Amino acid sequence: MFDSVDPLLAEHRELTERLADPAVHQDPALARRLGRRYAELGAVVAAHRDWATARTDLADARELAQEPGEDAAVFAAELPGLQERHDTAAERLRRVLIPRDPDDGRDVIIEVKAGEGGAEAALFAADLVRMYLRFAESRSWSTQVLSSTDSELGGYKDVQVAVRGSSSDPAEGVFAALKFEGGVHRVQRVPATESQGRIHTSAAGVLVFPEADAPEEIQIDPNEVKVDVFRSSGPGGQSVNTTDSAVRLTHVPTGIVVSMQNEKSQIQNREAAMRVLRSRLLDLQRREREEAESAARHSQVRTLDRSERVRTYNFGENRIVDHRSGYKAYNLDAVLDGALDPVIESLQAMDEAERLAAVGQQSRAEQSEPTERCGARR
Fold this sequence. Notes:
This protein is an alpha+beta fold. Helices cover 46% and strands 19% of the residues.
């Protein structure tokens, strides 16, 4: 039972030795990747240790319960509790052995775009950004607004925010928590501009990209990037509308376009644009890998059509509903203030259940293969 854990235990021992080598830490990106894997395998090691201890205790108690003498009854009475402890440890080990998303431990770049709904959609996009910033703050994550385009009445037409975590454990990674936020978020409320109190429905789109650990991780051929410079648009001020500081990068092979204009320096805008471009290319590699492996995944909605929603925010009822996990609560005000944990946990539980089901199907298929081969020979 659990034969697949042996190579993981050996890998954990190897990583322990590598991370003790000072030379590894001279490459921060490498040290970070190894640290994430070490933390992930640490959960496997701990679960295996608990299971092995519970198995030994149960086996010893069974043996002693069969021995003659007065103590046999005592050990027999302990068997149900030891069996329950063993089964719980076995289930925990089974869960941690399910392969995690390899990008769970990465930092992310979140893009929020106003969709259908005009000015109200832009205001809602700003509400979502504030929600993510507050959530990041509650987890001691750092945030940085890379780029934003304001709407005329307030809010954002689009905004890009980098979120950086503080833990090497993939289970506590930024992408592990925020990857399910991708999709169309729909809002139902009475806009501030509505004079007759009618409820409007509008939408904002959210895209979540895992960020590369280092520039070297995603190699970009400069000859495949078209660079355009132009004057920043905005309310005015020093270096705004007066110099060609804004930068637009077009990755020719993929058609990905990234524009940056928040910084006064063309060099800073170019660096920020390259950072976003690398994250998008990393996300493209991720999706291609998942499709090639036929892995079950939650696709992020790439349109801003209100009908393609993943979540609805109803202000009149103070209600939030996630249409994937079925989560529903009447604490929208708290969620928009950053209390996203219950919503995210419902999506993580759904994802874990699907991965468990997939592993079970694969196991049953492998067990049935010998029988099918024997039947074919007959």
